[in-house]
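INSTRUCTION: Work out how this chain folds

Token vocabulary: learned, describes local backbone geometry

RECORD BEGINS BELOW THIS LINE
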Amino acid sequence: MMFRKIAELSYWLATILFLSLCPLALGAQGSSTQRPQEKKAEQKPARYTETVTGCLQKSNEPGEFSITGEDGKTWGLYSTSVKLDKHLGHTVTVTGSRTYEAKAEEKKEGQVERASSKQEYADLEVTTLKMVSETCGK
């Protein structure tokens, strides 16, 4: 009789131990499947990120600025996090995400109109700005 009570007690202790460890085992398994996904997201390079150095100027569009890079491409700049207006007339290096607007329509309008004005290559949503010089010198 005593042996039977010990066996029954052992059974219940083993059951309680098993049930208490199941959530820990499942939690560890769930977190291990999430970590590789998080690492993939962190390692994935940002698409269409550009860095341009040039003279920061005011654009014709309200709230927008422009910069002509060393390669001659003119970029339209805007930002919600960087105060671009504080660096007007400065040589700066900006980094951000490239965005395109209706550039396909502009290409169809013809080469003559584009040759007469500086056409923007693309827009850049600036996320970082580094001042190179307080003046724009050539």
About this structure: The mean pLDDT is 75. Residues 21 and 58 are 63 Å apart (CA to CA).
